[in-house]
Amino acid sequence: MNSFKIVVFLAVCFSHQALGTFDVFGRAGFFSRCFKPKPPANGKITPEHKNVFYKNQKIWISCGTNYDLVGAKDLKCLGRNKWRPALPKCVPKVVQCEKPKEPRDGFIVPKDEKLFDVGEKIWFKCDRGFDLNGVKDLKCLSNGRWSAPFPRCDRKVVKCERPDEPDNGSIRPDEQDFFDVNEKIWFGCERGFELKGKKDLQCRSNGKWSDKIPRCERKAIKCEKPDEPDNGSIRPDDQDLFDVDEKIWFSCERGFELKGKKDLRCRSNGKWSDRIPRCEPAEAVKCKVPDAPRKGHISPAGQTFFDVRDEIWFGCRVGYFLVGKESRTCLPNGQWSGRNPRCFFKNRHY
Fold this sequence. Notes:
This is Sushi domain-containing protein. This protein is mainly β.
């Protein structure tokens, strides 16, 4: 009786292994089993040492370092060697670097991004008056870290260099070559020139002056044409205003001589370089007696020189008559007025 039971048990066991219909405990075999699937590349399945799973049993999938799981992290056996949901994949991790804290007295470019991909760079910059101490640009590495320590911004030791003096101008103070931040310099111009621009500049924290260096430009100064001296004239005579350094010339009428400078220059203060000259009567001016007309005579006779305003008279011999003015006057220029008359024979026909 006992031997019969053993034979039947073995038959049932062999039948389960061959047909997959029943197991030794009477449960459904093939229809309720799932075989362990092949793990995804760069991943593994837990439990690791079990290969056969039954309906509603689970397996867990995980990925190696630097890989992310894409899909479900656990699968359930549905029987008939089917798992649900689908087997996930292991893909390389998307590594990013976080934007570091901005340095004091500085900032980071780009400003708006918070995360950076591998290979991307950031740049550190400092505010005016500060120098960067360290590497100015960093790269995001594949481990999610930056390529170098973060730099810092240190205050500059700033000086402004003394600028060149403007043409026809000066700078105060005049004995200093370098100036500290917030120090000032003052500009001035020579006479006849005026300042175009700021009269004082301040040294800024970037080592530059607060504005452009001013210029000294010639003033728009004019000299008025003076009154002509009595018995004299001025050249040019058609101009009423004269620029700085322009000249005028004086001359006197005949019989007068110039007392003073014959030319004056317009100065940068709008005044002429000297006093206006005068025209005074020429001293010891004489008129030499002219030749008497042919067949005529001059009176008074026997005098060789005559003073200014003296007169002489002309006359003709008997039988002749005078053609022209009978008198001439000695002028202040030493010349006689008019022309000499002539004497013609009375019986001459014209």
